[in-house]
Amino acid sequence: MNSPFHLLSNNCPLPAHRKTPCSRIRVPESLPYTNKANFRMWIKTQGVSQVILSFDGFENADDVKRVAELIRNEQWRLANVLKNPGPSPADKAKMVPGGTVQLGDDGPIQLDATIASMSLKISEAFALNEMQALDLVLTAEIKKMSFDGLGLGLVAVVLYYDAHRLLAHTLRALLEWTRREELPAALSSVIKSSFVNRGVFRHLLDLTASFTVHNEFQTLATKHQGLGNLLHQNMLRSMIEETQRVLLDCVYLIVGAPDFAQAAVTDLCPLLKKLQPGDRFGHAHMVAWTALVSTISPKALQMAPNESSAILSTLLEEVRNETAWGDQFLCGSVQLAVAVGIRRLQLSPVDHAAAAAFDADMDVLAGRAIVNHAFEIIRRCIIQNDGFHGNETNIQVADALLKSFILLFPPKLMEMERHSEDELAGLDECAANGSTPSHAPAMHFTHFLESMREIYQKKQPGSVLSKLEAKVFKPTEQLFPHIEALLDELSAQFGLDGSQQLVQFCEMATRPQHAMHSVAFLDLLYSICRTQSTARSLFEIFYQIGPNDDGWVGWEQFMTALRSYEKLFRDGHPTMASTMGMMGVMGIGKKENINLEKSMHKYELAGLVSWCNLATKIVELDEKASMIVCDERGWTVIELAASLVAAPIPLTLKGPLLRLLGALGQRKAAAVRVWTALASFRVCALDENGQLGGIQRELEEKECSMRDYPSTLGAAHMLRSLLAHPLPASGHSFLLFLSKSIVAPLAQRSYNNVHQMWELATVSLEALHNLVHQTHADTFAVQKRLPQVKILLELLNDSPLFRSVFSIISEDVLVSLHSHTLHRPSEAAAAAALRLLLAAVHRLQPLRRMQPPSAIRAADSDALLATLESLFFAPFGQPERGCLLTHIAHYISKSLEQPLHALYAARLLRELSAVRPSMHTRIVHMLKMSDQLHHSLVRSVRRLLNVHEGGIVRYGVEEVNYLMSAMSSVEEVDIGMVQGETARLLLEVMAEGAEVDVSRENLASFLLGFEQVAGEAEKLFENDTMLTGLHALIDLVESFIESDSPLNLQYSALFEPAFRLLLRLVSIDAPRRMAILRHLRSTKSIYRLVRSPFIQKQARNLLDETRFEVAPTGASVSSMITGDILHLAAIELSFLLSSGQIEQPRAFYEALLETNAELDPHEQSTVNGAEASTLEGCSTLNTYDETTMCQPPQQPLLFCLLRNGRTVSMDLPVVPTFACFDSVKIQKR
């Protein structure tokens, strides 16, 4: 999701997680951001940030000198981010209504009462100098038109936080320069002296604790009334969180700077040592611990071994005196880091002298760290901290520490495991005897495994060991894409191309061990299985375990356990042997007979769930592993899993088994086997009374009463995979289960966990989409009453299924209007619902059209279809929640925050508007009932079309076809392309509206914000100061004119529909064409289009007859744009001539009919249409007569374009003799 504050700056867009700018500029000869503009807070910050972030002239001495001077001028502000020059009594005295103040070189400014009062409030709120507060208010007045619904003061608050966000990004960029291999001395000295010091470090460290969303919101809300509506809060939240992340990067960059780590340790150790066991371990303590450990990390030891050696000596003395630490467990975590660092230094061949200085036994220190619960404190206080997964350094430091322990202390690892085994055996003995343990077990090895797992996946992957009876499982929190990429990279170290020692660590999961350790190991492997390489490695680890390896666990043992359970449940034995199934595999040992009516033992249930989860993950990522699992004759895993699903096993196990079947069914050949197995064991089949049984009965009798739906959710995941392939006859009952039992009554059921409800809705709707996406609504399908056609008809009628889909969308819209969070649980479900409706609507016309006869009529079917109007305009019993059309408009208005939703909504809007011409008027009448929605739509259209605002749209001409083919998996498409397609669709809708319904209200005038009733001579907008999509459209045309190769721009796919819309707006019968033409004429846009580099290049492509073969899309789009430009020129000429103008038409005629000097094909031309040529260097009009036909004629621009626009089979147009245009006279003029 794009941050909403991208609309602040056209010149300095900063993605939330990137560290490098997307554009490059040269340092200006004279920097306007010096002390002359001390009071220009936001504008000055934006300019400085733009220069620093885009600077790449490190080899240019003059540029380096100017940037160094700029850094010196801005030193205080950059070193004191989020600090402000305090109020000044002298400046405060100037803030009076009617007073005059001077801001830099801008001249005197006279203050009115509103500006003066607002400036004083901003100054008081942020302890800001009054002149800087005034600058914020004046800038806010200029930027206010970009913030519909926000007052002047609220916009000033946004600008304040944005200024400090830009300062933080600038500071981070400067600190990153210090890590360059070759940094000019002038820059290196000024950066290190200004920012790499203890003062700046302490300030940034304090900000990690004090600068939070909660603290800032509380201050704004309680003291200064500076907190506005939901839009304002979301913008501030995004900026504050981004600033937090950037400042955290700055802390770690300063710590990693050369020759500063020792000073950082001096500040960090006291902060950690004074922490007491009862104190809250907050975000600042996590940052301090990470920064401290990073000074002795493997990367630090490699870059600066001497400095790291000195730090290790200091820390070794600190951790030896455990009594000096307030929290001994925290001391243990640092002891572990010191032991790992010294051991690595001792084993390094780089500096033996430094390693020899440490005579202490690191095994003893590591053992002491383990006794002090180092892994538990790392897990609970560091990894489980709310901000841990928001920063790359946090993850890298913790991951490197734990992996280094595996690599450098394998005996300690084995010792830890043996101690935990003994502790667990003692617990089992106490449980068997009914006694209470004398002391709580330390469980160091379990904490170590859990720490490793939570680095890669914070939430449980479905394990039921820790909270077997718990029904609430929150999903894994969303991570930034660069964090996901980092975790993938780190997990690859466990793969085939990674460390052999880490692979051997993973092999420990196959050894005989306690069931709790085995489950923890499997959950760890599930979390680190993120790449195909890791999945292949893990599969090979378990695959090499043979069936006769006593006590060892592999795929053979897992399949044997499944087979044992399957035989047990199939034969219906009242009891089961203790050595059967997972009891023996998990190493539980012999037990008494267990009644089948009771739940499985918690360890065997947890083991089966973990095995199924891991197998599912491996099969999803590695196709080869999937083929082996499916085709291994001795395993028959598909049949075993289906048989177990049909048996009365715990529902907690059925869900993972069904997911495993779905993962195996991703391949078409395996999907057929899965369908056959499900039908054979009657997992969901109709009985003699026509009622569904199997999982349907369990849903009604068990899951609904428990309000927990693990089995149904697993079935939905399985059907999502299976329905991506052709549906067999045996799958009809599953469609009934999916539509009638899951989706339709979704809102009527009770749930312990709302996240589970929305996940169930999302997966089920995606499964239905897979079915509808491959449904062919032809006569045969209607005649045979195929189930997929029935589903399609239900989606296109007022049925319970459609109402459920509508309620999901309605609920998400309602929550988004009142929610203060950026991510909602219902977000994914709403996107799936819109996507499903879009797929159904696409298949509506084949069912309904009359010529040729529709599928329903041809099949003589009695099926009914609702009209799109009835589906889109009806509130379905909930008028207060609006209709589907208003929900679609809501998502379009949130195009930046929810790009996928907006894309689906725009496609649905186009389908609706294409029904008939009068539909535009009906749509407008429905949408204009809400002024707020109308303003939001106008703003969204402007933001989408404003390609210079934040670099949002990335949608080239050649990418259109690619996105169309990738729409089935649009979530994997670049968001910039998705937003580009949304903008293109809206341009198409507006162009069609302006063409088919020009005399009445249409979507073009509505979305562009025109006055609803306007004549040709009237103004376009009610408020001339507002920015609309028309302004963005004209800016798009300007970017086309100014570019030498407009079709190579990142948003080139928008040009053709934009010109088509503009042409419709100025067409002969358009009511507002005069006003729009006057606007275009004020900047000479149409004349400049005729003179643009694009038109000249089109003329040069005169003889390139292969262009449609080499780049057919680009050539076709170029021809269409050329035609639109010529049409615009013709309309403008017609208006100018009819109004008696002379000079401007003459300029047009000269541009169109003068000789094109750039053509030089050097070919003879004949009158009958043979190839033509021009003489390079001529710039005059030429007359053609019989005496000049033998010479190579020179082509005027107009006729070059006409020739270029022809098809290959057409004859070339003959250049006429100009009787009315004498080149000699024109030259004289």
Structural commentary:
The protein is mainly alpha-helical and 1229 residues long. Among the domains are: 231 residues, no CATH class; 170 residues, no CATH class; 168 residues, no CATH class; 110 residues, no CATH class. The protein has 61 helices and four strands. Strands 1-2 form a two-stranded antiparallel sheet. Strands 3-4 form a two-stranded antiparallel sheet. The N terminus is likely disordered.
What fraction of residues sit in β-strands?
under 5%
Number of helices: 61
Global structural class: mainly alpha
Helix residue percentage? 55-70%
Amino-to-carboxy terminus distance: 58 Å
**Taking Cα atoms only, what radius of gyration do you get, to the nearest Å?**
35 Å
Q: How would a textbook summarize the main sheet?
A: 2 strands, antiparallel
Give the strand line-up of the largest sheet: 1-2
| Strands, count | 4
Structural shape: globular
Q: Are there runs of 5+ residues with pLDDT below 50, and where?
A: 1-38, 460-476, 573-585, 587-598, 1157-1193
User: Would you tell me the overall average pLDDT?
Assistant: 81
Summary of the model, kept short:
This protein is mainly α. The chain is built from 61 helices and 4 strands.
Q: What characteristics describe this protein?
A:
1229 residues; mainly alpha; two-stranded antiparallel ribbon; two-stranded antiparallel sheet; 60% helix; 1% strand; globular; nucleus; Npp-3
